[in-house]
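User: Can you predict the 3D structure for this chain?
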Amino acid sequence: MTLENLMQILPPTLLIVTVLGSYFAAQRILIPLLRKATAGRAVWEDLLFRHQVLDRAAHLVPAVVFAFGLPLVLEPGELFLLLKRFNNVYFILAGFLVFTSLLNAGADRYQSHPKHQHLPIGGFIQAIKLIGFLICFVLILSQLADRSPFYFLSGLGALTAILLLIFKDSILGLVAGVQITTMDLVRKGDWIEMPKHGADGDVVDVSLTTVRVRNWDKTISTIPAYELVSSSFKNWRGMSESGGRRIKRAIAMDINTIGFVDSDLLAQMKEIRLLRPYLEEKLCEVEAHNLAHIPPTELRRLANGRRLTNIGTFRAYCVAYLRNHPAIRQDMTFLVRQLAPTAEGLPLEIYVFSGDTRWDFFEGIQADIFDHLFAVLPEFGLRAFQTPTGLDMRQIGSSRPGLPASVASGEEARPAAND
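Assistant: Here is the predicted structure, written as C-alpha cells:
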C-alpha cells in the first residue's frame, strides 16, 4: 500500500474511530459518573436515569461528532450528501427518543405530587408524542428525498380525508382527552358506572383513546374516551369527597295496623327512652289544642280533636334514633318521610347519609339500622307489609269451615284400600 493510499484511508478511519470513541465515552464513562455523582440527591436525576434519557442522549454525541468531522475528511459530492442525510436521519430518530423519554420523566414528576396523582395527563402525553412522531416522520422524509419539509406539509392537504379516517379514534380521543382533563370528568381511581359499556368499577387508566375500568367482578371494561364526553355516565367521586353516602330505603307499612294511640300503647311507648322528650312535648301540645278548641263532651269521639297515631309516633322514633346514631351525618340531608300509599302499603322512607363511604362499612350501617327498625315495629302496634306466601294461603285455607284437613294442608285425597 502506497503512502498516498494510506493518506486517503487514514482520515475516514480516524473519523470512524472518533465517532465510536465518543459514543463509548458518553455511554461508559460520562453517564456512570453522573449516576454516582447524583445518586439520592434529587428526584429529577433519578427520573432521568429511570427513563433512560441520558442513555438515549448518548446517541446524539456520535451524530454531532460525525456532522462536524465529515467536511474535514470528505470533499462535497454525492457520497458526502448521502452520508450527511443518513446522519441527519439518525440524529432525528435519536432526538425523538430523547424527547419521548423526557415526556415520560416529566409526566412521572408531575404525577408524583399528591395534588396531581389522579389527573389524567396520559392522554396529553400520548397526543404530544403523536404530534412529535408526525413531525419526525416529515423531517425524515425531507432528508431522504432532499426536499423541504414544507413540500410534504403542503401535500398533506390532499391526504386529509385519509388521515382523518385512519386516525379517527386518535383525533376523537385527543379532543375528548382535553375535555376530560379541563372539565375534570374522570380521574384515575374514580368509581364510575356506564351500563352502556358494562362498566361499573374503578378507573385504572386514562389514555389518549381509551379509558380502562376494573369492574367489581375483577373484569376489565375498555371505553372509548370520546364516549365519556358524548354519552352519560355516573361518577361517584363526589360521594367520596363529600364524606357521606346516601341511605335511601323505605319500609312498607301495613295500613290495617295504623291507628290512634290508646292508653295502653301510650304507657308502653313512654318506657322508650328516645321517645320521652317527643311524647312530653307532643302530649302537652295536643292537650292544649283540644282544651282550647274542642268541648269536653265531644272528645269521646276519636275523630274529634288531635290525637297521637302509632305511625306518627314511630316516625318520630325513627328521627330520634337516627339523630343519636353515631354513623349518620347530621350536617347533610336528613329526612324521614311518608311516600304515597300503594297496593303494598304505606312506604315510610329513610333518607339520610352515612359517615363512612366505604362499601362494606356502608352496607353494614344500613343493615343495622333497618334490622333495628323492623324489629321495633311491634312496640308501636305496627306491622310491615309482605305479599302473602304459599304458607299464608295454606293457613287461610285451613281456617275455612267444613274444608277437609287433607285439602286445607295441601295433601291429595287417597282412595280407601279394598278389603
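The chain is about 55% helix and 10% strand. The first strand starts at residue 191 and ends at 194.
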